[in-house]
Amino acid sequence: METVILAVVIAVVVLGALGGLVIGSRRKKSLPPPPPAAPDITAPPAEPHVGDEAETPRDEPRRTIEEVDLPDGSAPVVVEELPAPEIEIPEPTAGRLVRLRARLSRSQNALGKGLLTLLSREHLDDETWEEIEDILLTADVGVLPTTELVDRLRERVKVLGTRTPDELRGLLREELLKLVGTDVDRAVKTEPEDRKPGIVMVVGVNGTGKTTTTGKLARVLVADGRTVVLGAADTFRAAAADQLQTWGERVGAYTVRGPEAGDPASVAFDAVKEGKEMGVDVVLIDTAGRLHTKTGLMDELGKVKRVVEKHAPLDEVLLVLDATTGQNGLVQARVFAEVVDITGIVLTKLDGTAKGGIVIAVQRELNVPVKLIGLGEGADDLAPFEPEAFVDALIGD
């Protein structure tokens, strides 16, 4: 019995020892490290708001409102007003072409003097007459008008016999006047009998001076005592409306304009409407300088004409041509005449050029009179066309 008890005690002691070893080994294993503590984060300085100082205020002496000098109200506050644009008084149009004759006569070297020199030869053979034809063609008189003029000159010189310089000058003057035409009504139609205002549309190709001509025409009308509204329907060219408005302000003409690249027909319509409400005498409509080869743009020009005529018929459609373009100008004239009914021609850049014969050629081509000519870059260098003064300038004194 004692042996059994002893065996049980030994077993208990052995089990206790084994349990201690297991627990001791578990304690020797490393435990995972505890989670790190959250770091201390310093917030960035707040950005200053409107009215706040960008840096920490300093301790500086500040004046109180009692120490600040305030106006006592004894001196009135003066507000400077911009001066109104000075209205210019254009030169009268009567006799303007005569006053500008010196500029026009620059073109006489190739035409007038050349013809007189050849006609003064003792013997006028076929070679001389061919030289006369060459001078006329070079001056852009045109083939048919040149043939007619040379035939008449040959016949009259043959009948005349003796030819003094005065006789030749008179002979040449008569024949040129016949070609230019003296019995044509060249007045710009701006005074319809049954209504007001008169409506004038200005058309032409880029570079002919169309917008400038419109502004100068406004000066011509103002000089004749008319009141004018300008329609800046050239919405495709940058600064065209500004340019036209500047011309108008110089003579007191009001300008109707629209947004850039806007509908030109709408601007033209509004200009006529404004002219009616203001009771002015004339509305001038400047259109875009369209290339005659662009059919779509030419159609747009026809649209402008149709829209304007919802108010009233156009009294004038003036085609602006550059006198230096010669026969190319005639091509332009033909295309424009197909789109709108041209009633008059304005020839620009006629000073200092040997292309004076274009007056004859373009009138023959369109059966439309030249009504105005530009003889320089000055504001009053646009003149009503006077055939006698024109021919006299070409052949000289």
Automatic annotation (TrEMBL):
PANTHER family: SIGNAL RECOGNITION PARTICLE RECEPTOR SUBUNIT ALPHA. Residues 25-69 are annotated as: Disordered. Residues 369-382 form the SRP54-type proteins GTP-binding domain. GTP binds at residues 204-211, 286-290, 348-351. SMART domains: AAA, SRP54, SRP54_N. Involved in targeting and insertion of nascent membrane proteins into the cytoplasmic membrane. Acts as a receptor for the complex formed by the signal recognition particle (SRP) and the ribosome-nascent chain (RNC). It holds the Pfam family SRP54_N. It is a peripheral membrane protein. It comes from Streptomyces hyaluromycini. Keywords: Cell membrane, Cytoplasm, GTP-binding, Hydrolase, Membrane, Nucleotide-binding, Receptor. It is an enzyme of class 3 (hydrolase). This is Signal recognition particle receptor FtsY. It is found in: Cell membrane; Cytoplasm.
